[in-house]
Design goal:
By secondary structure, the chain is α/β, with parallel strands linked by helices. The chain has helices at residues 2-33, 62-65, 76-88, 104-113, 129-133, 138-155, 179-199, 227-251; strands spanning 45-48, 53-60, 91-98, 122-126, 160-164, 204-207. It is built from eight helices and six strands; from the N terminus they run αββααβαβααβαβα. Strands 1-3-2-4-5-6 form a six-stranded mixed sheet, sandwiched between helices. Helix 7 (179-199) links the parallel strand 5 (160-164) and strand 6 (204-207).
Amino acid sequence: MKRAAGDRQVLLRIAFWLLLPASVVQGLGLRKRAVRLQPPPGDSHGSCGEGESLHLLALGDSIIAGVGAGSQELTLPVQFARALAATLDCKVEWHIEGENGAAVNHLLAQVQQLDPAIPADVILLSIGVNDVTGLSTTRRWHRRLEELLALLRSTWPQAMVVFAGLPPMNQFPLLSHPLRFSLGLRSRTLDHMASALLAQQPGMLHIATRIDPQRHSFCADGFHPSEPACQAWAVELADRTAKALPDWKRST
């Protein structure tokens, strides 16, 4: 069974590289005409809910930065904080460090510069889409992500790390074939590697990102989830996190 799964991964990687020349040409044309959205203005920290405080640190790419949201309150991290506060009946104090276009190597460098005194009970992590579009090799992705997870654990040993899985990019409305197919293959491969890495360590949770274009709307760029989609995503992330958090707290 393991050998069959390994063979399938090899075939998927070969398919990705075979499609690469046509995908690159298509991607260059798409980049010229794509709608470019910016993160909303607003503070990088705040709080919601009442009761005992839980500290949320959100790190990563444009999803964390809130690209496509009309206000900071409607971004995924803040909606996740609100959903956590409602689920756990507590006060969630959130701190956001997101950068549009960030890949895993950029995030690793950013975290190295963060003040380790920033409190964190839960770390929400979104990274990988720009590694897919930037044609990162699987070896580089695995090495850098492993380094990032080790850094997070050493800096905030008591925090639960929640990795929002790479989205199925073959469902993005902006993309068309063969680019849609090849990026979908690559995002699935990198997400599989991320899931396996997190499963090896206690207190780290990979939550798969599911997209149904019939139910989940996108922003005008066809690349980022809309505000309602972020709300639904935040509720699912909070539900899964709340269920795992008590076990992690007991073990620490």
